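ARCHIVE CARD
CATEGORY: sequence design from structure
SOURCE FIELD: tokenized fold
FIELD CONTENT:
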């Protein structure tokens, strides 16, 4: 069993998260958990390394069959092995989709706040970003369906994020049905980033938007990975599920010499994650849920001016610090005065400079350290 309370030293390991800031800064920014990978995953990589050849890799039939079985058992969604396209990441996937399926000048609808790679993707291909902001309420983050309907009419594609990063929103089946129907009426492509789909709390169940109907299946490119749930993002392995063959062929052609084959060890790790690491995932989710609740209670107790709507999924908290009236934006304040590095809210949309994103996927002692540093910065 993994002890999620143990702190593992990551400085000096080439970790992006722990290399960004000087050594006296506690990093709580990028979506990378400070938990070791499941022993079953580490064992699978170690076993593969018993064979000394590490050439170009392809997904084995066993991995495709495992993904097909997972989609059926988890989501009651029937997919075929040939509908799965392996990729070195979800971000290359949605950029490939935009390049393949749209033309310069076309509109792409996104829901803000949203993490920077999605926010920036349309501009890479000369596309027009159309924004449909989520609305914060005490009950969680909601859609303005009337405004969304108006904007989807001007959009050639919806670049969707569910579960949503950074708010942690999980879209309900009713919301997804409404979105899918609007996309059907307007003949809008759906590119759905579902990388956090296994990181849900409080008994919620993820619903892939492509699973809702035949039409939704035919117009959706679904992007998933084991990387966030099992903390193996550095192995650069993800996959798209694309039912529509013409769309799948166009997607494949958009590699354009930039998106190469997938990491051979990442393929082994993904198979082990989905087939052998369920116990680790269950224990990790329980720990994350406890961290989320603890963070919510401590923020309310220590920083009553901060508004934090508890995440329904992910290991990311979205903190509204606008009522604190700090001299600088909160990211800069906490970095300079508390030596704790969060993700700046401005990275998630131009209206969110007074927010920070707080990664609570870490041992509790690091969570306490971050809160203590925030508190000292305000003394």
């Amino acid at each position: 069993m993994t002890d999620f309370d143990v702190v593992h030293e990551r400085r000096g390991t080439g970790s992006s998260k722990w290399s960004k800031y000087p050594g006296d800064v506690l990093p709580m920014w990028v979506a990378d958990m400070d938990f070791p990978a499941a022993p079953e995953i580490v064992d699978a990589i170690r076993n593969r390394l018993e064979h000394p050849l590490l050439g170009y890799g392809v997904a084995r039939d066993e991995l495709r069959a495992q993904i097909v079985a997972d989609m059926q058992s988890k989501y009651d969604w029937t997919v075929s092995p040939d509908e799965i396209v392996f990729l070195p990441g979800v971000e290359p996937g949605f950029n490939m989709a935009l390049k393949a399926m749209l033309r310069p000048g076309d509109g792409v609808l996104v829901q803000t706040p949203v993490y920077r790679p999605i926010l920036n993707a349309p501009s890479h291909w000369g596309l027009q970003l159309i924004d449909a902001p989520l609305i914060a309420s005490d009950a969680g983050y909601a859609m303005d369906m009337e405004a969304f309907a108006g904007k989807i009419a001007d959009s050639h594609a919806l670049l969707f994020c569910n579960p949503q990063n950074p708010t942690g929103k999980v879209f309900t089946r009713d919301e997804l049905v409404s979105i899918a129907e609007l996309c059907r009426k307007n003949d809008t492509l759906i590119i759905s980033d579902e990388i956090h789909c296994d990181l849900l709390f409080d008994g919620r169940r993820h619903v892939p938007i492509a699973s809702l109907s035949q039409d939704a299946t035919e117009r959706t490119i679904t992007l998933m990975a084991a990387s966030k749930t099992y903390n193996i993002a550095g192995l650069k392995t993800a996959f798209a599920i694309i039912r529509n063959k013409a769309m799948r062929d166009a997607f494949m052609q958009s590699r354009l010499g930039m998106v190469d084959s997938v990491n051979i060890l990442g393929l082994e790790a993904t198979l082990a994650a989905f087939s052998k690491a369920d116990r680790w995932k269950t224990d990790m989710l329980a720990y994350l849920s406890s961290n989320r609740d603890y963070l919510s209670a401590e923020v309310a107790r220590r920083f009553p001016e901060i508004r934090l709507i508890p995440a329904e999924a992910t290991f990311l908290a979205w903190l509204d610090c606008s009522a604190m009236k700090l001299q600088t934006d909160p990211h800069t304040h906490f970095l300079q005065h508390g030596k704790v590095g969060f993700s700046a809210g401005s990275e998630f949309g131009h209206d969110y400079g007074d927010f920070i994103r707080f990664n609570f996927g870490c041992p509790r002692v690091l969570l306490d350290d971050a809160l203590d540093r925030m508190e000292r910065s305000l003394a």
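CARD ANNOTATION: DSSP finds 13 helices and 15 strands in the chain. The first helix runs from residue 16 to 19.
SHELF: design records, drawer C
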